[in-house]
């Protein structure tokens, strides 16, 4: 065999088994990702509850800043907090529903009561979240 035989590319028929070898690890990775996604489905709900609590805290902080800069203790709405740049947008919970807002609050008389309709997006159901409670 001469020196040119060493750099001659292999025949395409000889490459078929090698081409198929990458498919098995790829299949294992894809199936693993699907299983992880399915297994973490319940955790997503926990993250959304946590995110809603953080959202409520940020609105409470915006309200404190509003009160420091105004003679009135409460904005008319969350839209006013947005319009006056205390918030970047009207807050929506992770399920796509606007937060409920009452200021002054019945539970927080110096601040505001905030609530989320929760996962089912309906007010007054057991999955609602409230700023004055810490349980889901």
Q: Could you give a quick summary of the protein structure above?
A:
The protein has 136 residues and is mostly helical. The protein has 4 helices and 3 strands, in the order ααααβββ.
Helix-strand layout with pairing:
Blueprint: H1 12-21, H2 23-39, H3 41-69, H4 78-83, E1 100-102, E2 113-116, E3 129-130
Antiparallel strand pairs: 1-2, 2-3
Textual characterization of the structure:
This protein is mainly alpha-helical and 136 residues long. The chain has a domain of 87 residues: Glycoprotein, Type 4 Pilin (2-Layer Sandwich). It has four helices and three strands. The protein has a three-stranded antiparallel β-sheet, covered by helices on one side. The radius of gyration is 28 Å and the shape is elongated. It starts with 11 loop residues before the first helix and ends in a 6-residue tail after the last strand.
Q: Please compute the radius of gyration using only Cα atoms.
A: 28 Å
**What is the percentage of strand-forming residues?**
5-15%
The description of the largest β-sheet is: 3 strands, antiparallel
How many strand elements? Answer: 3
The main sheet orders its strands as: 1-2-3
Which structural category do the helix and sheet elements fall into? mainly alpha
The CATH architecture of the domain at 44-130 comes to 2-Layer Sandwich
Tags for this model:
Glycoprotein, Type 4 Pilin; elongated; mainly alpha; 3-stranded antiparallel β-sheet; 136 residues; 4 helices
């Amino acid at each position: 065999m001469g020196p040119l035989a060493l750099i001659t590319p292999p025949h395409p028929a000889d490459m078929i088994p090698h081409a198929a070898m990458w498919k098995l690890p790829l299949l294992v990775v894809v199936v693993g990702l699907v299983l992880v996604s399915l297994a973490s489905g319940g955790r997503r709900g926990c993250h959304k509850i946590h995110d809603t609590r953080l959202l409520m805290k940020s609105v409470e902080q915006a309200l404190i800043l509003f009160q420091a800069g105004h003679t009135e203790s409460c904005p008319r709405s969350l839209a006013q907090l947005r319009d006056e740049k205390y918030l970047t947008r009207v807050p929506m919970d992770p399920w796509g529903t606007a937060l409920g807002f009452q200021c002054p609050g019945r539970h927080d008389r110096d601040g505001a009561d905030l609530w989320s309709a929760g996962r089912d997006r309906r007010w007054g159901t057991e999955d609602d979240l409230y700023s004055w409670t810490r349980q889901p």
